[in-house]
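lol so apparently i was supposed to do this last week
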Amino acid sequence: MSDRIPLLIDTDPGVDDALALLMAFNDPRHEVVGLAIAAGNVGLAHTVRNALKLREVAGCPQVPVFAGCDRPLVHAPREDAAHVHGRDGFGDVGYPDPAGQAEAEHAALAILRLSHEHAGRLVLVALGPLTNLALALRLDPTLPQRIARLVVMGGAVSAHGNITPVAEFNVGFDPEAAHVVLSGFPKYDLADWEATIAHGFHHREVEKWLAAGSPRARFYEEISRQTRLWSEDRRGDHWHSADALAMAWALEPEGALETAERPVAVETEGRLTRGLTAVDWNRQTGAPDNARILLRYDQARFDARVKAALAAG
Ligand code: BDR
Ligand code: CA
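anyway here it is w/ beta-D-ribofuranose bound
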């Protein structure tokens, strides 16, 4: 068994997922042991294909890709995020087919198997809707006992949502799954949308990194172009990469400068509030502090890690 920390990533690639995956593949302290894929940003056929392509671009074609759930647990999603990530989730640039294919094993079963193979050491990072993880948890409620650390990109901790006024995309896409996971894991790390907004990169700076000329930078420049233009038009000078921030924290916990531990619950009903992550900031409910919420991360470390992932260092 390798000395490196085993890392299992549940994801729905996605332009920001792609950056997070490049960061993970580039990290010498961690070994990516699998990519569990869900539908989210776009449909499952695209997210699986994108994961296969990304592992190839990162020079890690041996890392297994497991296709998982092609829809939320209970309700049809309100909408996907094709308007941000492109219809294929990778900017519609028409990249050539990846070599290889996904494993036959379902992502939820792979999560459980890998949790046994790496019991007590496995770091699990969830970058998409929590559907696969919820299913795994329902199949085997002892799963959290074998996970060293769960890092979730999801939620909006003061209800400044990005998919509805109050809901963040990953939680809003499948609130029932988010409820199952965020109430089923006694402890987890939460990198929410509001932390994302507080840790942007200046567009002109990103363009410099992307001009590095490495195959990774070139591929990433192409697939992110559409979403960067969209972001500059909508959100101004800074570009935000939610999944990359969660991954930076997962890979380098020392970079967290400020966190807060609080109870978090997911609203699954509500005409206006479905998908809200309700944080008990004043500890009024008596519920345990299940979430460690990221408030501030070392921006210099974050920048350096992204640059290194793009081979732009
Ligand atoms: C999250 O939603 C998705 O669109 C992104 O990939 C990220 O995981 C941000 O709300
Ligand atoms: Ca994602």
